[in-house]
Amino acid sequence: MAKTAIFLADGFEEIEALTVVDLLRRAGIEIITSSIMGRKEVTGSHNITVIADELFENIDFNALDMLILPGGQPGTTNLYNFEPLKDRILEFDKEGKMLCAICAAPTVYGKMGLLNGKKACCYPGCEIDLTGADVQTTPVTVDGHFITSRGMGTAIDFGLAIICHFMDGNAAENMASKIVYKC
């Protein structure tokens, strides 16, 4: 079974994070919410506080197949400034393991130089930080071991793309139908 983690920092975009968590859990894909804040309570950019499943330091990264970054501000900045997460992202990139991000969060990968020559998308206005990327305007862009998406309005598409990666297109279509999405 696939195992993923989504990383939460104060100022994360709640819908981008929780939509992905909800869809993956419905599909039977394990996803752990992980706080990088040193406490399990993390407050999103719209003052919604959630309790993460685990603290970053308790995550077994060897057991993970994918890392997911939600956008939001200052959440994306907090993710980028957290060096232990960036170290893990570099390890995943080197191993060709899946790296996903939505909204402003693809800029974390861009600023790290990981998107050179890759197709990627992000929140409008953040494109300058997709360093070296072939910037797309599609709701979701998949290129190699990267899945990127544009924002809160594309969160369902993003979650379905992750389901498609681990399962298949039929599983993603079935999930879309179950949640009455684009019927």
TrEMBL record:
One GO CC term on file: cytoplasm
Residue ranges annotated for the DJ-1/PfpI domain, each copy included: 3-163
InterPro entries (UniProt xref): Class_I_gatase-like, DJ-1, DJ-1/PfpI, Prot/Nucl_acid_deglycase
Xref: Gene3D superfamilies: 3.40.50.880
NCBIfam families xrefs: not_thiJ
UniProt protein name: DJ-1 family protein
Taxon lineage: Bacteria, Bacillati, Bacillota, Clostridia, Lachnospirales
